[in-house]
Each structure stands twice: as C-alpha cells, then as structure tokens.
Amino acid sequence: xxxxxxxxxxxxxxxxxxxxxxxxxxxxxxxxxxxxxxxxxxxxxxxxxxxxxxxxxxxxxxxxxxxxxxxxxxxxxxxxxxxxxxxxxxxxxxxxxxxxxxxxxxxxxxxxxxxxxxxxxxxxxxxxxxxxxxxxxxxxxxxxxxxxxxxxxxxxxxxxxxxxxxxxxxxxxxxxxxxxxxxxxxxxxxxxxxxxxxxxxxxxxxxxxxxxxxxxxxxxxxxxxxx
Length: 227
Hints:
Layout: H1 14-22, H2 28-38, E1 47-52, H3 58-67, E2 73-79, H4 82-92, E3 97-101, E4 112-118, H5 126-139, E5 140-153, H6 157-171, H7 177-187, E6 194-195, H8 196-205, E7 208-216, E8 219-226
Parallel strand pairs: 1-2, 1-4, 2-3, 4-5, 5-6
Antiparallel strand pairs: 5-8, 7-8
C-alpha cells in the first residue's frame, strides 16, 4: 500500500520560514531590496501599504522602517495562516503596522499607494489572481504601484527543464537532494505557476502596465502601474 502524500503547508512554519524562503528562491533578497527602496517614489500625504502574503512580517517590518518618518503611514500585512499572523503581531506590530488574517479574495482594500505581492500569487488559481488584481486596480491610488514577484513557466519547454535543473542545483547549496525532492512532491498541485505570456496577458487584462525589473532563472519581479 502506497504512503499517503503529505501536502506542503506553511502552518506552524514561522520559525523556519524566513531562512527557508531565502534559500529556496534565487533573487529573493534582491527583489525585496529593489521594491523597498523603490517604494519611496509612490508615497503621498496619507500613505497606505499592503503586504499580501506577509508570512512572518519580517519584510513588512522592513517596509515600515524604510517609511516610518512619514507623517501619515499605515502598513497592513495580510496572510491566511493564523500562526504566521500571531507571530507577526507579537514581533512586529506597532501603531503604524498591523497584521490581519484573511483570504485575499475576501479582503476589502482601502485606497492604497503600494501593494507588495512578493512570491504569493503562485498559490492562487488563475480565477483568483484575476479577481484580486481587479480589486487591487480599483483600490490603487493614481500614481501608486504594485511590486509583484513570482515563479513563471518559460514558453520554451526545453528551456524550462534547464531552468528547473539549475534551480535544483542552486538549492543544493542549502538543502540535501532528498529534501529538495520531498518539497517538490509536497508542493505539486499547490503551487500553480503560469507561463510568462499568460501572466503578461493577465496584467494587461486587469489594466496594469508592467515593467520587468529583475529576472533570476524562472523567477520574475515586476513593477505594475495603472495604464
């Protein structure tokens, strides 16, 4: 009898998450560095920022630290995992930074200057992505921006195989081969990357102009603004 497959979950993973994702995604630190430093170009008198899929709140706190001298700043971290939100609230909550447990498709956004969607939407279906991006578009202030990063599938299947091979080789600097294979098995069917061309069409369909800021293997980082 075959063993039941254990699906990947971020529940009760908060103590390991930040190190794990840093060692799993090439260009992770660089994407965040660019987005946080670019964020000062999209502020206003009353600045509202969402960090969607905030996990432990560590990066949310960096957003706050970068902009904390603003007269009016509200930073809202959102995640579906209760254990992550509890951790973030205990460690990083303050007068200008709050954390909320909620499904993104059920969240009503305030008028917003900046959305951070960093390596989050790969866990959503195409329909969910479209619905949430449309809501974000309607909530985004004129002159606002979205920082969006995720894994994409290359249009060329041969290139996609090579990129995945190099990615696995890169991860072996921090993980064993058995750990990598186990994670790939657990996350299969949960993580739902789409082709780069499909993602570009989704941005256009929801009204956004895209600018590709960084590409590292099959991980892309975009700056999205209103057309």
